[in-house]
Amino acid sequence: MLSLGRSARLDDTRDSPEYVVVAETTTGDDGIARIRSYASVTEDALRRVAIEKEVVFTVPSRGHEVRAKRSLTVGSLELSSTPLPAPTAEARSEILLETIRQLGGVSTALLQNIPRDKRTEIEELRERVRLAVSLDSGSDWPLCFAALDAIEKGEGKPSDINQLEELVEPWLSSAESLKSLNLFKILAGSLTPDQIVSLDQDYPAKIAAPDGTRIPVHYSNGIPTASAKLQQFFGQTESPCIGPRNNRIPVSLSLLSPAGKELAKTKNLPFFWKETYPSVRAEMRGRYAKHPWPENPMEAIPTRQTKKQQASVANGAAEPTTAKKKRGGKRRR
């Protein structure tokens, strides 16, 4: 193994030297590099000219964990090394930033080891901010989101790269590895308190269905969408909307059957109830006879329950009154 990491074969092994200084190599048709000219050298000779230094490095197989060692080297050849305690915060920051650059930048380095659920969490935050920027162009959202988008599209400029490096640098000094960096937390940390409130209120991750259930909202391609059972939106006469007060847009609702299959998609609930629901009701009331399919859904009670469950709940609500009367009668005796 050569000091630069390449391998080469020494066919002349009569002396079997531990170290050699290679002057010439050739590569044959088989793709193997062979040493043609060399001089043997002892480890003692190398140690006499070796330099001892402290090295901070990362271990790729452990999520680019930061470590330190005292290394005895001749050029790029390491003769020996001794582990050292954890490096300083400044040294950690420097080596992690260098590693990020070597791996292709913040986007590549911090996203490659993230589990799918965490990646989804990051993407949903970015999609919410993208929509916020498009609906409220006068707002001052952090530039790091636009920089990340530009780089991923292959349109990144040096200023975008610098923007992302400045974003992560404050987090590097306390990180033990690249894997330990939480990109969602870093991106969310760039938002001001007012922007966080705006996201939660105007571009919520969940909205309340009329039956009280909170359902997720997804913002893929700039279109807010949500899915729920059709019966959960009984009584809702207006489509749910998101966005700033002066530029709100309707959520695209995917209305599902009791079995969870999409029956319709709409951004206009009043139109759906009047024009589409009657045909849906005619087709589904026989297939899902246990569930409510009222003629006037805009005046019905929203629910996820079957008709039998609704009746049971209604009867249960009346029972405490009856029991109280009986107990009261016993006391009078």
How would you portray this structure in words?
- This protein is α+β, with helices and mostly antiparallel strands.
- Among the domains are: 1-41, no CATH class; 106-194, no CATH class; 206-307, no CATH class.
- The chain has ten helices and twelve strands.
- The chain has helices spanning 43-49, 89-102, 106-111, 116-135, 143-152, 158-172, 183-189, 193-202, 269-287, 307-332, and strands spanning 19-27, 33-41, 51-59, 65-74, 77-83, 206-208, 214-218, 225-229, 241-242, 249-250, 252-256, 262-266.
- The strands form four sheets. The chain has a five-stranded mixed β-sheet with strand order 6-7-8-11-12. The chain has a three-stranded antiparallel β-sheet with strand order 3-4-5.
- A hairpin with a 5-residue loop joins strand 6 (206-208) and strand 7 (214-218).
- Helix 2 packs antiparallel against helix 6 (158-172) and helix 5 packs across helix 6 (158-172).
- The protein is elongated and about 95 Å long.
- It starts with 18 loop residues before the first strand and ends with a helix.
- Residues 321-326 and 328-333 have low confidence and may be disordered.
